[in-house]
Amino acid sequence: MRILSATVERAHYARDFGQVEAQVALLVKDSSRPVPYIRRIFTVEPARGDEPLRQRLTESATALYLARFATPPEVQFKHAA
Question: What DSSP character marks residue 77?
């Protein structure tokens, strides 16, 4: 599974919490599908930080996606008999 690109589609500054809420579109290429597909992930990051906000949002969305949808190779190819 590879993330081909990541784009911040919507972002909102939550002033009360000092955070940015964003919807990030990930273009994903999976070995089980012949065509790349888009997954939209909602993520939250602090408004202030060392790295650029766009980079932090895309890295956060990628990490969330991989934690939820990626399976280890040894599990991915096991089939029930």
Answer: T
Q: Are 3 and 24 in contact (CB under 8 A)?
A: no
The C-alpha atoms of residue 56 and residue 79 are separated, in whole angstroms, by 37
Cβ burial 24-47 (10 Å sphere, 16+ → b, else e)? bbbebeeeeeeeeeeeebebebee
Entry pTM: 0.78
| Within-domain flag for 79 | no
Interval 41-74: pLDDT, tens: 999 999 998 999 999 999 999 999 888 877 665 4
Domain count, the chain: 1
